[in-house]
Design brief:
Residues 72-81 have a biased composition (Basic and acidic residues). The protein is 19% helix and 28% strand. It has one helix at residues 53-67, and strands spanning 2-7, 10-16, 28-31, 40-42, 45-47.
């Protein structure tokens, strides 16, 4: 069975354990097959994080820069006299 480990209302880990598992880590283990790390948990409901459109745009711009091809560096030839 999958459990979402929730600390302060945020999923911090996903674990797989038997139904009689006694949770010994920080946070609370809540059965869930849909929750993901970073999701929130409030009033018995898991929700994905809210993504700010400006941050999302910045992230995609940064990713484009990271994924841009890099020109090969030409090695300098030694002069032979």
């Amino acid at each position: 069975m999958e459990y979402a480990v929730v600390e302060n209302g945020v999923v911090t880990n996903i674990i797989v354990a038997s139904e009689d598992y006694i949770h010994a880590l920080d946070g609370e283990a809540i059965p869930s097959s849909e929750a993901q790390i970073g999701w929130t948990y409030k009033d018995g409901v898991f929700s994905p994080p809210i993504v700010d459109e400006n941050t999302k745009q910045l992230s995609s711009t940064k990713m484009a820069e990271i994924d841009a091809p890099v020109e090969p560096v030409k090695e300098q030839q030694e002069k032979v006299d």
